[in-house]
Design goal:
Layout: E1 4-7, E2 10-13, E3 23-26, E4 32-35, E5 42-43, E6 48-51, E7 56-57, E8 66-71, H1 86-99, E9 107-111, H2 120-129, E10 137-140, H3 147-153, E11 166-168, E12 174-177, H4 192-204, E13 210-213, H5 233-243, E14 248-253, E15 260-264, E16 267-271, E17 278-279, E18 297-298, E19 303-309, E20 314-320, H6 335-341
Parallel strand pairs: 2-4, 8-9, 9-10, 12-13, 13-14, 14-16
Antiparallel strand pairs: 1-6, 2-5, 3-4, 6-7, 8-19, 11-12, 15-16, 17-18, 19-20
Length: about 350
């Protein structure tokens, strides 16, 4: 038995100092489970070292939580160059909401359709609108984006095999950002080159909790004109890769312009509301050749998601901005509201 055991992702038990024995097991999701006869608490550190000689733990990342803010489908520049852009104003409203949160997000991930026409001036307007945000910002491409124009405004952008795919290693959760853009096509794309890259990235840390961000959700949504075909090669290819790994805790996407929640490839998937106008909820079949007068888009409030990692799993919170007038504040007059809800003092 080695003097120090090091894990990268696991549930583990902290025991009383006098505990001398333990057992190391594997759970269904490949988490290392340390058990012993003492009192224990279960947590998920990013990196734990348990010294068997001194019974000491490096607890810097124990049970560390994380908030990943997500916005999508901004479509900046929709009205054209030199004209007032309603989507820019909608974006600024959401930016203000995010920056005014009492607990700021650890990172903002924007999942594509950053601008409307893929033009340099629109990316410059996007950059300006995002400037009040002080926490890190990362982006993905959607079908309205243009790789060349984006790089002119963000010159430090690095493409891998021509695609905008990368991994964020900071924090208790890895974030892998995928590129599903095929310029000239509205739907998603995920070729063999991109799939091999994703597989290599997941192989590097197969036990560490991971979130995948992309623009196109590879799912049937029930909205016929905004839905992926499960038989499409890109969907099958993506599903094949992700299904092989039990550490992909969640997938977040955009493109649909409304909040949706589903499962895919043995994990959970969420789609956030758009910054731009929202798609109308209508699940009736649609015939592309027969216009039937149905509503397609509505002028709802711009939306966002907060992906909350509690140290064990993700909870997706869907919000809109502005959120509405506050009716009750947590003050002396209404402190009983919180206590009553938490069953305190009963």
């Amino acid at each position: 038995m080695p003097g120090v055991i090091k894990f990268t992702r696991q549930t583990y038990t902290m025991c009383y100092p006098n505990v001398k024995s333990y057992a190391l097991e594997k759970t269904k999701k490949n988490k290392a489970l340390v058990t012993s006869g003492g009192c224990a608490i279960n947590m998920y550190p990013s990196d734990l070292q348990y010294d068997l000689g001194t019974k000491s733990c490096d607890q810097r990342n124990m049970n560390r939580t994380m908030i990943i803010a997500q916005i999508s489908d901004l479509h900046i520049g929709h009205e054209g160059k030199g004209k007032t852009c309603k989507n820019t104003q909608r974006l600024k409203t959401v930016v203000r909401t995010l920056t005014e949160l009492r607990r700021k997000p650890d990172v903002l991930v924007i999942t594509g359709d950053l601008v409307e026409y893929g033009e340099v001036w629109a990316y410059e307007a996007l950059k300006e609108a995002l400037s009040p945000i002080e926490f890190p910002i990362h982006m993905a491409f959607g079908n309205h984006d243009n790789r060349e124009a984006f790089k002119k405004v963000y010159p430090d952008t690095r493409y891998t095999d021509g695609f905008f795919q990368y991994t964020l290693e900071d924090g208790p959760v890895r974030i892998i950002v995928l590129d599903t853009l095929e310029e000239g096509r509205h739907g998603g794309s995920f070729c063999e080159t991109r799939a091999l890259w994703l597989e290599r990235e997941l192989d590097k840390q197969p036990d560490r909790p991971t979130l995948i961000a992309l623009h196109h959700p590879p799912i049937k949504t029930g909205i016929g004109w905004l839905s992926a075909d499960p038989s499409d090669d890109w969907v099958k290819r993506l599903k094949h890769v992700i299904s092989k790994y039990d550490n992909v805790e969640h997938i977040m996407a955009g493109h649909i312009h409304r909040a949706i929640f589903k499962s895919f490839a043995k994990t959970s998937l969420s789609v956030t509301d758009a910054i731009a106008i929202q798609s109308k909820l209508e699940l009736a079949d649609i015939d592309p050749d027969i216009p039937d007068g149905r509503g397609l888009f509505v002028d709802s409030r711009p939306g966002f998601c907060l992906q909350y990692w509690d140290g064990e799993s993700f909870t997706t919170h869907s919000g809109q901005s502005p959120c509405g007038k506050t009716l009750i504040h947590f003050n002396e007059k209404h402190s009983h509201v919180v206590k009553h809800t938490m069953d305190i003092g009963l």
